[in-house]
Amino acid sequence: MSPITPTPSHLRALYRSILRELPSRPLSTPSPLKQRIRTSFSTTTTTTTTTTTSASQTDGTQRAREVEQRAAEAEQYIQYVRAQRMYATLLERYNPGMGMDEEERVRLTARRVGMDLPEEFVVGKVGR
Q1: Alpha-carbon distances, residue 13 vs 7, 9, 10, 21, 117 (angstroms)
Q2: Are 87 and 24 in contact (CB under 8 A)?
Q3: CA distance linking residue 111 with residue 127, whole number of Å
Q4: Closest CA to 68 of 10, 127, 128
Q5: Backbone phi and psi for residue 46, each to the nearest 5 degrees, phi listed first
Q6: Regions of the chain with pLDDT less than 70
Q7: In terms of pTM, does the model score above 0.85?
Q8: Mean pLDDT for the chain?
Q9: Whose CA, among 37, 51, 55, 70, lies 20 to 30 Å from 18?
């Protein structure tokens, strides 16, 4: 069975999917990670176009395998990053007190059952 080389449009779609999952940043200053991904995809795209014009069949099939493998790795990375984003979203949704300090958590727990904690006395603070 011969390997199926991803088309340039498929590679562009993978590239865009990866960029969607990364944190947004102004276009005028792309991050080093985005620059690295862009160069990686641009070399993959040029390899795809030169594969068809290559004189050596074995060299062309080896390049096609490399492109196919890199495309598969990109798809796996996209799935992983989406899963991590969903995990973080669910963790925040179902554990709302995770980022709170202990005092805030106790105060909100008391309010949940209908109690208000008394105000603490602070030296130098005038009462209401």
Answers
A1: 10, 6, 5, 13, 54
A2: no
A3: 22
A4: 10
A5: -65, -35
A6: 1-4, 44-56, 125-128
A7: no
A8: 80
A9: 51
